[in-house]
Amino acid sequence: MTETTTPEPTTSEPTTLTVDVVVLGAGAVGENVADRAGRTGLSVAIVEEHLVGGECSYWACMPSKALLRPGAVLAQARAVAGAAGAVTGGVDVAATLASRDAIVHGWDDDSQVEWLDGVGIRLVRGRGRLAGPRRVAVTADDGAPVVLEARHAVVVATGSTPVLPDVPGLGDVEAWTSREATAVRDVPASLAIVGGGVVATEMATAFADLGARVTLLVRGDRLLPAFEPFAGEAVAASLAAMGVDVRLGARLARAARTDAGGAHLELADGAALDVERLLVATGRRPQTGDLGLETVGLEPGAPLAVDDAGCVSAVDGGWLWAAGDVTGRTNTTHQGKYDARVTGDAVAARFGPRAGDGPVDADGDDGWSPLRALADHAAMPQVVFTRPEVAAVGLTEDAARAAGLHVRAVDVPFSSVGGTTVFGTGPHDDGGAARIVVDEARRVIVGATFVGPEVAELLHAATIAVVGQVPLGRLWHAVPAYPTRSEIWLRLLEAYGL
Ligand SMILES: Cc1cc2nc3c(=O)[nH]c(=O)nc-3n(C[C@H](O)[C@H](O)[C@H](O)COP(=O)(O)OP(=O)(O)OC[C@H]3O[C@@H](n4cnc5c(N)ncnc54)[C@H](O)[C@@H]3O)c2cc1C
Ligand SMILES: NC(=O)c1ccc[n+]([C@@H]2O[C@H](COP(=O)([O-])OP(=O)(O)OC[C@H]3O[C@@H](n4cnc5c(N)ncnc54)[C@H](O)[C@@H]3O)[C@@H](O)[C@H]2O)c1
Predict the structure, then answer these.
(1) Against a cut of 0.90, is the pTM above it?
(2) Where does the UniProt annotation place the signal sequence (predicted)?
């Protein structure tokens, strides 16, 4: 379980470091794999080419939520009589950007590096590539080559990168991805966003709050296509009420740089617009293009398909593992970290000091083994921090039917709940709505969606109900407090017929 270093005689030769486990990528997922495997006594080295903490801490979850929170608070205050009068202005742009800077620690990862040091994980800074079985070659930041040899396992947690559509002229307009948007210093007067998913809707909300004139160019016929249709409809209506120009069925055909340095955009239907900035938010792909996958017989660029423990079973020997965005299996931090805990524990169970004490892939008493990421199949939660927020877990009605389940969807508006009156509703906000999707064969909830202001915190109850497969008859005895918006649960069960 020790770490050994073999310095080579000349500086051009690589230094070889041998550890039990090598983790490639120190985002939230890589850090959690390293922690879970390392806490059992395995020696772990983690390779990171940019900042320890990865996308989520510096360019994704945290800065985007910092940009969104002030507008959400102001909107909610405006919805409450007695508080509304105290709101005399809009979002304070300078203070919001300063708060974002503080939340991302000024893009400095000292505190996370300190944490790695504290738990005994060896950080190797630089770009890593697989160089055959159990070997990772790193070009360190100072240019010195390092070879990491893993006695037992290499875990890939290199995340994902934005996918840019093939639009003529896109390269000339220096289009933003979510990185530039979340790190914004000068808010553009006008911003066009291509995409209708999570990044597009969150950034449209944030930049409208920050004072930009926002145009949303959505290829499809609705926003947030992965969610229940009423979610995208509510967000589209709210964005329009905020002054965002939401164009459905809009295809960007061509882009060109304007004399002023902005972007001239031509749409497939012949319409055109000039904007100061263009943000492209058209999805992400697993980051496996330049990882040396070909040295272990895998195809570069493809997601690293894993089994429920996180093992890349296409590679012989059980030494290659992966977790997080790079697997194409999850696309949120919380679910990636869940996979990381499972994978770190599975690696420890297979190779750690207690390996051999018991079966490594045994199911728990109820079939839910801690060494298998089963929630990925049945109960992934996600919150979209738009206004209204969208909070969903499990299957949509359509997805459940496509999976062959005989389901019934039950819909209830939040206006039916006393707690909503106290919480407050605004002029363009009716309080929102909720849906549960019930598997009629088992009378359990397989999906739930809440749409409304600050519904994020309502989600975990639904996640527990879905993972716990709590029968509706038993849920009936879970009494929500009055007057809270959790009474939506009572209304949903009544609407079902209890
Ligand atoms: C704008 C935006 C907002 C988001 N908001 C949320 C949110 O609110 N909630 C949520 O749950 N999810 C959110 N997500 C998704 C979330 O950011 C990702 O799911 C999460 O970051 C994935 O974590 P990861 O560790 O797998 O990958 P990453 O965070 O991408 O980490 C991978 C790390 O590997 C490093 N790396 C890659 N290749 C190499 C290499 N060859 N050598 C060395 N290092 C390498 C990278 O530098 C990076 O640090 C958001 C995403 C975006 C784009
Ligand atoms: N709050 C959160 O949990 C959160 C926030 C932001 C991002 N994320 C995650 O980050 C990832 C990336 O987000 P995203 O919004 O970029 O992806 P997404 O998959 O959510 O949405 C992509 C959108 O782009 C559209 N699109 C795809 N190709 C296109 C093309 N060629 N032209 C025009 N439109 C096109 C799609 O129809 C879709 O509307 C997602 O997996 C998301 O879950 C999560």
Answers:
(1) yes
(2) none
